[in-house]
């Protein structure tokens, strides 16, 4: 595991950090408190080549390694975590469209995603199911020329404005128990209902209802990219990237707080002179750097083709918790001015708190780690 970036990685980090600061930093709060989709910003990400970074060049991506994807996610999250989520999703999710769909189906969708013209959702969670992905009730019933989907998915990020979704469903009849489908969301028999969330509002969550929605046979994601097991493997990538999203967001709060403690005076000196302030920031900086290195360790394992479910789960439960604690302490250090909607700190806390749950709760991640540490026969 290289603990320093290559010169190419370091140059890429500087370039993305510059884009993030110039294009997305100042507008974060206005976007984060609006329910409007951030189409213009997504187009800028596409123009900068930051969508689908990890996809092959033939698929419209950059062919970037996992570490480069992590760099982009971390730096964009320092400006706007919702936009960083889009950078992460377009590298972690759409690869199955290239590997598992006919070119005439997957190719145009990937081109639209990587250019920023469209976005794609993942429809995995179901009402009452939560983290139990083995008991899915959405069914794929065979029909002439394809399948018909019945049931409801919930907590679908981007569900209100995505043009397509990857839908994981329980197949009726022979074959694998679970299958994945690329589903256009413009069908009249798909019902969408938006959630009223405190964070990630530009992306939004929704419930999707399928009432006999027809999916052509060539929209089934096949080959080695089919089924729930393949989806869980993709989640290892996304969970690691979530760790870096949280680190990036927390570092933004830390940056603003460092500037604040240098300027703010109490008892005749900058409050940075008080160890109760400076030591708190030093502790958070240490924990965030540890989480950052763990995340890049996980990505290095992925780049080497090694299993990294254990490390991905460590990133997923630990980094959001660290970020929540760090942002909360930054608010406290700002005093009464920190508890204000005019500053971004409160919104940063609302945004990052949701990542403690999305893509698997801390309890699920600890179970994954415990199974590898102790053995599945002892942990259930």
From TrEMBL:
<keyword id="KW-0274">FAD</keyword>
<dbReference type="InterPro" id="IPR036250">
    <property type="entry name" value="AcylCo_DH-like_C"/>
</dbReference>
<dbReference type="Pfam" id="PF00441">
    <property type="entry name" value="Acyl-CoA_dh_1"/>
</dbReference>
<feature type="domain" description="Acyl-CoA dehydrogenase/oxidase N-terminal">
    <location>
        <begin position="6"/>
        <end position="91"/>
    </location>
</feature>
<dbReference type="Pfam" id="PF02771">
    <property type="entry name" value="Acyl-CoA_dh_N"/>
</dbReference>
<keyword id="KW-0285">Flavoprotein</keyword>
<dbReference type="InterPro" id="IPR046373">
    <property type="entry name" value="Acyl-CoA_Oxase/DH_mid-dom_sf"/>
</dbReference>
<comment type="similarity">
    <text>Belongs to the acyl-CoA dehydrogenase family.</text>
</comment>
<protein>
    <submittedName>
        <fullName>Acyl-CoA dehydrogenase</fullName>
    </submittedName>
</protein>
<dbReference type="InterPro" id="IPR009075">
    <property type="entry name" value="AcylCo_DH/oxidase_C"/>
</dbReference>
<keyword id="KW-0560">Oxidoreductase</keyword>
<dbReference type="InterPro" id="IPR037069">
    <property type="entry name" value="AcylCoA_DH/ox_N_sf"/>
</dbReference>
<dbReference type="GO" id="GO:0050660">
    <property type="term" value="F:flavin adenine dinucleotide binding"/>
</dbReference>
<feature type="domain" description="Acyl-CoA dehydrogenase/oxidase C-terminal">
    <location>
        <begin position="226"/>
        <end position="373"/>
    </location>
</feature>
<dbReference type="InterPro" id="IPR009100">
    <property type="entry name" value="AcylCoA_DH/oxidase_NM_dom_sf"/>
</dbReference>
<dbReference type="InterPro" id="IPR006089">
    <property type="entry name" value="Acyl-CoA_DH_CS"/>
</dbReference>
<feature type="domain" description="Acyl-CoA oxidase/dehydrogenase middle">
    <location>
        <begin position="121"/>
        <end position="211"/>
    </location>
</feature>
<dbReference type="InterPro" id="IPR006091">
    <property type="entry name" value="Acyl-CoA_Oxase/DH_mid-dom"/>
</dbReference>
<dbReference type="GO" id="GO:0003995">
    <property type="term" value="F:acyl-CoA dehydrogenase activity"/>
</dbReference>
<dbReference type="InterPro" id="IPR013786">
    <property type="entry name" value="AcylCoA_DH/ox_N"/>
</dbReference>
<dbReference type="Pfam" id="PF02770">
    <property type="entry name" value="Acyl-CoA_dh_M"/>
</dbReference>
